[in-house]
Amino acid sequence: MDSRGTVRDTLLLLAIAVLGTSTQAARSAYEAQAGSPTSAFPYTMEVIPGKLKVRIFLHDIHYHNETIACWSYVTEGLWTLKQKELIFSLRRDSGQKPEDYPHDILDLLEGIYHFAEQGRLVDVGSVTFFGERGFMKEKDLLGIGYIDPQDLPRVETPGPLLAAIFLKGDEATVALALGLTRVTNLLGMKYRYYPCPPWSEVKRRPVVSRKDVQNSVLLKIPKVSIRASYYEEEKRIFLSLLPSAHERLQKALEEAPPDQPLALLTNVDSRANASLVWVSGQKQPAAISPPNSTGSRKTGNFLAFVPEQKENQMLLVEDGYSLFLTNSTWKLIRAALKDGTDVSIPAAKVGEAAVSIEWVKTEYTSPVTGKSYTSERWTTHEPETTPSPKSRAAVSASKIVLLTSESELEASTSAEELGQYIKEIRNVVDNYFTLHDVKMSRDLSIQFELGAIGQAEIRIVAKPELDAASLTALHGQLAAVPARKPRGPVKFEVMFAIRGGTSN
Questions:
Q1: If DSSP states are collapsed to H, E and C, what string results for 411-472?
Q2: pLDDT 10s digits, 460-471
């Protein structure tokens, strides 16, 4: 297995265990004054004075009928070096007391800080190797994989944030060569936790070996690991790429001849509701999904492009999809990937594959206030199905943009409460414009800011503009919509497309 082409994804932490020893005295002094081990959590450790702090939380993760006791280590100080803050959750064995948290993790986080000082950063999909001697006295604990974080009850996290998990045996090597998603999806299947368990276990068995993947089709074609994800729905691929993927993708396309296949090693797509998994000898496609999922939107470990075909077809292969493309279609896709532009290619006929490629926007400008917001990824939430004209007389379309981070949102309210509130807002807007013949189509943007004291601050912008009386009336009806008082501030915008002439 040749991983030389993606060595840039790794950090070789051969001497990690000797780092951080200067902070041991400070930790011991803190613990001596901490009092009750359980009540003292979260511990705050000054790992590198004035530069890096680590908070250690004691908490449980509940899933299915099991309770996982954990320590979670959360950094503060990495973002000053443009490295996302890290959360590392470690399962606590039944024989371990709360105060028995391993100090080795603190040394590891200190080592990552020093690498970040050198500009050696990690992100989702990256892999860190420890070396042949392993870590925490475990010879087969050989690396770390970095994944999107998940919200954990009773754990306070900053942003931007990255989660780290242990890789055992050959898992780090397989992840580097064939994609980290291949390993994390197998972990998700093993633990029945979608998309991947957020905690690490020191004593678990590896989920994959080099021998298991020696016949993988991915070993036979050029590939590049980038910050991208996709999902498939009704024979259409929706590929989303982060701007940070552009430089590496350009280089890969320049090195790969136009008539040769190319595979993108991708991350799990947050828009999907199922993710493909593959084990050697598997006869039928397999996937993992969250509870009560329809599995209608499948994501995977890779997306391969195979040119020089007579028509555009799609085939599910192992834990990803292969797109067999005509040369003209591949030319359009290559240009979009190389130039950083969006493209949408419809199916030429019934049964053929379709492709939509979108580069993620990192900046959002509010149409209500004109204020710009920057984030690694802006996801626009839209209904999966378009309401029929009978159920929506005036509103022809709507979309939602969250201006509060998902972690802050989870801490402030529930998805069910917010979803119900937005549903009632849609009804108010629809009823208002159904009863008032506006004679023209409009774009309506409304910003809501819900405070912890139970009041909603509402701002409305309409194009073309509404007269003052109509604006006041609509504002009053929206303000009358009852909202469950959130535990913290919640801010979002809803955009409506209003069709004109709707009254009878």
A1: HHCCHHHHHHHHHHHHHHHHHHHHHCCCCCCEEEEEEEEECCCCCEEEEEEEECCCCHHHHH
A2: 999 989 989 999
Q: How many of the other CB atoms lie within 10 Å of CB of 292? A: 6
Count of alpha carbons within 13 angstroms of residue 490, beta-carbon side = 26
| Nearest CA among 255, 373, 362, 237 for reference residue 312 | 237
φ, ψ of residue 417 to 5 degrees: the values are -65, -45
- Calculate ∠ Cα 26-28-29, nearest 5°: 65
d(C-alpha 193, C-alpha 180), whole Å: 16
Distance CA 346, CA 255 (A): 28
- Written as one letter, the residue type at 316 is L
pLDDT, tens digit, for every residue of 308-317? Answer: 999 999 999 9
Question: Taking the model in full, what pTM does it have?
Answer: 0.77
Burial of residue 117 (number of CB atoms within 10 Å: 0-12, 13-18, 19+): middle
CA distance 253 to 245: 12
Calculate the dihedral angle through the C-alpha atoms of 504, 425, 380, 182, rounding to the nearest 10 degrees.
-120
Higher pLDDT: 459 or 361? It is 459
Per-residue burial over 135-146, b if 16 or more Cβ lie within 10 Å, else e, is: bbeeebbbbbbb
Task: State the Cα–Cα distance between residues 356 and 237, nearest whole angstrom.
Answer: 6
**Beta carbons within 10 angstroms of residue 274's beta carbon:** 21
38: nearest Cα among 12, 69, 15: 69
Buried b (16+ CB within 10 A) or exposed e, 295-332: eebbbbbbbbbbbeeeebbbeebbbbbbbbbbeebbeb
Q: Residue 156 has what DSSP assignment?
A: -
365/270: higher pLDDT: 270
pLDDT at 193 over 80: yes
The model's confidence at residue 385, banded by pLDDT at 50, 70 and 90, is: very low
Q: What is the 3-state secondary structure (H, E, C) of 39-84?
A: CCCCEEEEEECCCEEEEEEEEEEEECCEEEEEEEEEEECHHHHCCC
Tokens 């492009």 sit on residue: 305
